[in-house]
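REQUEST FORM: STRUCTURE PREDICTION
Request ID: SP-0412
Submitted by: Lab K.M.
Chain count: 1
Length (residues): 233
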Amino acid sequence: MDLKGKVAVVTGVSKGIGLETVKQLLDKGCIVAGWGRSKPSLNHINFHFFTCDVASQSSVEKAYADTTQKLGNDIRILINNAGFGVAAPIDEMKVEDWKAMFDTNVHGIFYVSRLIVPNMKVQDEGHIINIASIAGLNGVLNFAGYVGTKHAVRGISHSMYMELRDFGIKVSTVYPGSVKTNFFDDIEGMNANDNMMRPEDVATTIVQTLETHPNYFVADIELRPLRPRGKQK
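STATUS: Completed
RESULT:
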């Protein structure tokens, strides 16, 4: 897809992978609607921020209405990036944390995609990228809730691409390993460090996936740091 002039919606744009993806899309000439709970310190003529909590259906519907009123409804790119994780043993996990992860990481993809897909079908072109995690491919100690949400993202994404491919719409899933972002801020015993991947590299892979030939479809992309424990002595 030629990205110049295309309208993209990116969720979770306040920091990390979402913000880096927005920056690179802008560099490619995209018009970006950034949806998030807090506005990033990013000023660009083609960046438009809309307050949105993807865990709330009404918040998503308002953000979509505000976006289409300002930018029109011809949205060709959707990056479902918003998400978070809480660590705890299954018998110590707070019910509200468990539900909040599913509301954001899983239900949010549905709330957003259901509004944007119809016009992609009309235009016979679109690309949706859902950001999962390595946790969507295997289990992780003390992360049953988060792992459950990311396994759900994988299943939803694969079903979506089967539904939408004949309408010219690609649905790709990205599975990053550890990335140096704020994800680890509230997770005890885990800290972001330089042995993790850089968010800008993950964003580059996302953008390169968007730029593929219309009949070339990348379903799954697994990303990992080469030396997660650093250089061996």
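NOTES: The first strand starts at residue 7 and ends at 11.
Reviewed by: T.R.
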